[in-house]
TrEMBL record:
<feature type="domain" description="PAS">
    <location>
        <begin position="16"/>
        <end position="87"/>
    </location>
</feature>
<feature type="domain" description="GGDEF">
    <location>
        <begin position="293"/>
        <end position="426"/>
    </location>
</feature>
<dbReference type="InterPro" id="IPR035965">
    <property type="entry name" value="PAS-like_dom_sf"/>
</dbReference>
<dbReference type="InterPro" id="IPR013656">
    <property type="entry name" value="PAS_4"/>
</dbReference>
<dbReference type="InterPro" id="IPR052155">
    <property type="entry name" value="Biofilm_reg_signaling"/>
</dbReference>
<dbReference type="Pfam" id="PF00563">
    <property type="entry name" value="EAL"/>
</dbReference>
<dbReference type="InterPro" id="IPR000014">
    <property type="entry name" value="PAS"/>
</dbReference>
<dbReference type="InterPro" id="IPR029787">
    <property type="entry name" value="Nucleotide_cyclase"/>
</dbReference>
<feature type="domain" description="PAS">
    <location>
        <begin position="140"/>
        <end position="194"/>
    </location>
</feature>
<feature type="domain" description="EAL">
    <location>
        <begin position="435"/>
        <end position="689"/>
    </location>
</feature>
<dbReference type="Pfam" id="PF00990">
    <property type="entry name" value="GGDEF"/>
</dbReference>
<protein>
    <submittedName>
        <fullName>EAL domain-containing protein</fullName>
    </submittedName>
</protein>
<dbReference type="Pfam" id="PF08448">
    <property type="entry name" value="PAS_4"/>
</dbReference>
<dbReference type="InterPro" id="IPR000700">
    <property type="entry name" value="PAS-assoc_C"/>
</dbReference>
<dbReference type="InterPro" id="IPR035919">
    <property type="entry name" value="EAL_sf"/>
</dbReference>
<feature type="domain" description="PAC">
    <location>
        <begin position="209"/>
        <end position="261"/>
    </location>
</feature>
<dbReference type="Pfam" id="PF13426">
    <property type="entry name" value="PAS_9"/>
</dbReference>
């Protein structure tokens, strides 16, 4: 911009173009401002201060002769006098820099006038020694400023006393207005009203300020922004200019909200997670304590959920969890809470002063809804919940106690399959603690091989010849010694531990049977028990095949025993597993037959080879006509279906004789031999053969 004796001072600028030219002039080269009456320096930019060997702060209050020395001051005194008379001064001179380097400089002194009174002067020094013209420097400086303003993605608005003077394209895009529409308007018009006090405080403070607010778009929607308001001094006695930079932080806030949501919610079900629930439950407890009202906490999980994951895959399990979440949400009221605590565990909080009777009613509705079949992976699945309930304040006065006691009640509800929910009572706590201790011991035993197998022989009723062995697992309890399966299988099933135990039993029984055969024992089958959960695993048949290949046991020498309930509640996966086992040559037997849902239909539909008559029908067989009739019916039904029969719990010669007379194929029980460790089987077999031959 060429110098002019009529160049406007800051306060004379009436539009944004003049203001921009003044900013560009000031940005070019070295710049300082001196007060008229004292000749003290009130401002110096970094290049000006550095040229004379000072910092901008050190320059403040210094007079020209203190800055440049007496000789240089005397050389320019006449130019200063002209400026003090109100003239615009421009001159070129040769001088030595403070470092002693000859320089050619151009000096411009612009008087600062207010209502005809000289207030000071702006001194601009341009170093011409670089071989570039003053006009070239100005043009490039102006072009850089314009390119920056146009290219930056940050919105910039220039205002004075809150009145808009200029704005760049990014600002206009942000608010949806044209420059003509906003120029001359107050900046407050474009801020949401709640942020007006913040903006006014920033303007009146006279300092740079940074704050967050929201601007109003032309179409009415709000845009969250971060604002940097930069003060641009205009001279003593006049209102400063402000360059305001606005950054749209919509995406940033959305990202923060998403991060916060993910931190507080379960990614699968979108329900609050345990951490978030704990925070909300604390607030509900505070309100309930003040209002003397009750809060019910329900701890819920799903029986045998691991079987769904194991048999149908985790994707199917995830579908079940999402369906459960939706059903739970449909059962509760707007002021209640539903959260996923982890795996298949959910927490429901019933607030609003829910009574015990209301809690029970809602819980029963939950159970009924959750037990309705759901379609997953082209199959109809039924999930059964186990729910524990604790009530504030009688069952606990803080979050930790309520969740712990609801969990203890749920633990016991899950132990008893016929009981879908359980209210907490103090007596339950010690019982639940014992159960938890048992579970921990059981897990340790699984990890460290804390089991062993005992074998009970099976013999033919007609000849007495050995026909097989049943493998019976025993738990080496650290305090109680050997424990029978009746005392831990239900716990193992409820806690999802039965698969590990069943797999261990299968592998050990096959390996030990092969050891007996290698030592000359007749190759009779060995039978192992499998939980109903196992038959819902898609990999059971392949696991059995792998164990047979690993141990070398022929498939026809392995019998697998299952309960009637396995068949009565079978699905497509159970049928596939049974048929896959049959194709391998493995035989299936129904254990405890007659105590469940005996049906010719499922016996015909599934590949079953033998029925094991429950001991409850054998105990009074020789004295009770009803038991005799039942055993007779079972034997005759089995024969009609070409199935073998095995009587369990035979404890006397009279019972064995009666079974022989009724046509039962085989028997096992203490009359023949009690279960024995593997290392005693060979000796027992040899002794039994000698005894049989001697008869």
């Amino acid at each position: 911009m060429p110098p002019s004796s009529s160049a406007p001072s800051l306060e004379d600028s009436s539009d944004s173009n003049a203001m921009l030219r003044l900013i560009i002039d000031a940005a070019a080269g070295m710049l300082a401002y001196f007060e008229a009456d004292t000749l003290c320096c009130r401002f110096a930019n970094q290049p000006y201060a550095a040229y004379y060997g000072f910092t901008p702060e050190q320059m403040l209050g210094m007079r020209p002769w203190e800055i440049m020395g007496q000789d240089n001051w005397q050389a320019i005194a006449e130019h200063v006098e002209r400026c003090l008379r109100g003239e615009y001064v421009r001159y070129v001179r040769h001088a030595l820099s403070p470092a002693g380097v000859p320089r050619e400089i151009e000096v411009r002194i612009t008087p600062h006038l207010e209502q005809g009174t000289l207030r000071g002067a702006v001194v601009q020094v341009l170093d011409l020694s670089q071989g570039r013209s003053v006009q070239q420097q100005l043009d490039e400086s102006e072009e850089r400023m314009r390119l920056f303003s146009a290219a930056t993605h940050e919105a910039i608005v220039l205002h004075r006393d809150g009145v808009v003077l200029d704005a760049n394209a990014a600002l206009l895009r942000l608010v949806g207005y044209s420059l003509d529409e906003i120029r001359g308007k107050t900046v407050l018009q474009y801020l949401d009203k709640e942020f007006w006090p913040l903006a006014l405080d920033a303007m009146q403070s006279g300092r740079n300020a940074t704050y967050k607010a929201s601007v109003r778009h032309k179409d009415g929607h709000s845009i969250p922004v971060e604002i940097d308001a930069l003060v641009m001094p205009a001279g003593r006695g006049t209102q400063d200019y402000r360059m305001v930079v606005l950054r749209d932080i919509t995406a940033h806030q959305q990202a923060q909200a998403q991060v916060r949501f993910l931190a507080e919610h379960d990614a699968l079900t979108r329900l609050p997670n345990r951490w978030h629930l704990t925070d909300q439950l604390e607030q509900l407890i505070l309100q309930a304590r003040e209002q003397k009202r009750a809060v019910a906490v329900l701890s819920l999980d799903l029986r045998h959920f691991s079987a769904i994951n194991d048999s149908l895959g985790h994707q199917a399990g995830d579908q079940v969890l999402c369906e459960v979440a939706q059903r739970l949400c449909s059962c509760v009221r707007p002021h209640d809470l539903v959260a996923r605590a982890g795996s298949d565990e959910f927490i429901v909080v019933l607030g609003g002063g829910t009574t015990r009777a209301e809690t029970e009613l809602i819980t029963r509705q939950m159970v009924a809804l959750l037990e309705m079949p759901c379609q997953v992976a082209a199959q109809q699945l039924v999930v059964a919940p186990a729910i524990g309930i604790a009530i504030f304040p009688e069952d606990g006065e803080n979050v930790e106690a309520l969740l712990r006691n609801a969990g203890a009640a749920r633990y016991l509800a899950k132990e008893h399959g016929h009981q879908p929910f359980q209210f907490y009572t103090p007596a339950l706590e010690s019982r639940a603690s014992r159960m938890l201790n048992q579970e921990q011991l059981l897990r340790q035993s699984i990890a460290h091989g804390g089991f062993e197998l005992h074998y009970q022989p099976q013999v033919r009723c007609d000849t007495g010849a050995l026909s097989g062995f049943e493998a019976l697992v025993r738990w080496r309890h650290p305090q109680r010694g050997l424990v029978s399966p009746e005392e831990f299988v239900a716990l193992a099933e409820a806690r999802g531990l039965i698969t590990a135990i069943d797999r261990w039993v299968l592998r050990r029984a096959c390996r030990e049977a092969c050891g007996w055969y290698a030592q000359g024992m007749p190759r009779v089958p060995v039978a192992v028990n499998m939980s109903a959960q196992e038959f819902r695993h898609s990999d059971l048949a392949s696991d059995v095949a792998a164990v047979l290949a690993e141990t070398g046991l022929p498939a026809q020498l392995l019998h697998i025993e299952l309960t009637e309930s396995t068949l009565m509640h079978s699905d497509a996966q159970v049928q596939r597993t049974l048929h896959a086992l049959q194709q391998q040559g493995v035989e299936m037997a129904i254990d405890d037959f007659g105590t469940g849902y005996s049906s010719l239909a499922y016996l015909k539909r599934h590949p079953i080879h033998q029925l094991k008559i429950d001991r409850s029908f054998i105990t009074d067989l020789t004295e009770n006509d009803d038991d005799t009739a039942i055993v007779t019916a079972i034997v005759q039904m089995a024969k009609s279906l070409r199935l073998r029969t095995v009587a369990e719990g035979v404890e006397s010669a009279a019972q064995l004789a009666a079974l022989r007379a009724l046509g039962c194929d085989m028997a096992q029980g203490y009359h023949i031999a009690p279960p024995m460790p593997a290392d005693q089987v060979l000796q027992w077999q040899q002794d039994y053969c000698h005894k049989l031959q001697a008869q």
